[in-house]
Amino acid sequence: MSAPERVGSTGTTLCSALGNALSAGNAFIEPPWSRPLDPMTVLHAVPASSTIAGMFFLAALEGAKRRGLTLSPARERYLRFGFYPLGEFVPLLVEAARKFYPDRSLREALRAVGQAGPAAFSASVLGKVTLGAAEGVHAAVGAIASTYAINVPGSRCDVLESSPRRTIVGLRDVHHFLDSHHVGVFEGTLQYAGVKGSVRIASHGATSADLLLEWG
To answer: Within a domain: residue 191?
Structure first.
């Protein structure tokens, strides 16, 4: 038998990650939508070395423009395929969420921004190559999962388990709003794939969790 594939810099294997996910089958719960969220705590915990692709800054700014709103980016210009500090993106994302969805809690607003992400991403050059070519729910989930290591260097998202109407993805070293915004991303992935479903979470800390996606 060949050695198991490694997941991330910690050396955790896909096999052990899958085992943890399966053994914690009853640990998947609804995300904590009613729990207070302090964005400054999240911001202060972001490693100074963490970066994110410029396309996400541009998506927030373009979303504001479509709504007739203005945001306060840290710099005047972002390149779509450049990389910028994640610590710059977190305040912009929070500002966008609050302005786009002023009648919702911050968690729910971040969730809604995340839900819109896959459809918006599919219109980009990279999205057309990855998500645009995906057929079916599992392919769409796999396509979105594959973008994490590319667009947020140092993070990781792997498909840990798949069956006909469910899949589990493992997110590791995701330093911003894992239990709200990124849950929304995978809810949006199900919507993009044309199915009604749910996403539950098994948290392993502030930056690591498994998500259980199920659909009818």
So the answer is: yes
* Percent residues over pLDDT 70 in the chain: 88
Beta bridge partners of 161: 168
Q: Where residue 80 sits, what CATH number does that domain have? A: 3.90.1520.10
pLDDT in tens, 95-124: 999 999 999 999 999 999 999 998 888 877
Q: How many domains does the chain have?
A: 1
Whether 51 maps to a domain, the answer reads yes
Paired residues of 171 in beta bridges: 157, 209
Give the range of the structural domain holding residue 185, as residue numbers without chain letter.
6-215
